[in-house]
Amino acid sequence: MLPGDKKKSDHHRAYTLDRRNQYKRLELLQSMPIFGGISADTMAFLLEHSKLVAVRKGDYFYHEQDPAQSLFVLVHGTVILLKAWQGEDYILKTLKPGNCFGEVALMDLQPRNTSSLATENSRAIEMTDNTFHQLYKRDIEQFTIIRMNMAREVCRRLREADSRAFAADIQARRLKRPH
Fold this sequence. Notes:
Radius of gyration: 20 Å
Oligomer: single chain
CATH topology: Jelly Rolls
Distance between the termini: 86 Å
CATH architecture: Sandwich
Number of helices: 5
């Protein structure tokens, strides 16, 4: 093998690995509720305009009250969502690969309502508000479907939170009753 051939071979492997990873990321996104009904062409567009973000164990993707400019899709690792209350952080949820986080702040145009801490080295696809704006200009129907899917996911989480709050309220009432 000539020296130039090795260089070409290494480049090809890197390209093949990247293509294989792109395919895995595309499959991951297609399996998620917020991307249900989205065309392969649109998914490829979103991936092309997104970046992969690596966060080390113990570091944050974002902090509560940060301005919101993107959502994340966890590809590798584990992340916990934290909520601050009276100076303490409390775990709301543990996220695994395939979970989406950060979309609430994109929907309500408010600062982040949670912090996202990597509990192990993690990687996530970051889709910015700008990417969604480009999609809006490119294909308003696909953009609208994603927004509707996001709203459904947020509503599903709200139902779960309502059920937990109701159960906690009933439990507190039981504890307050005289015996």
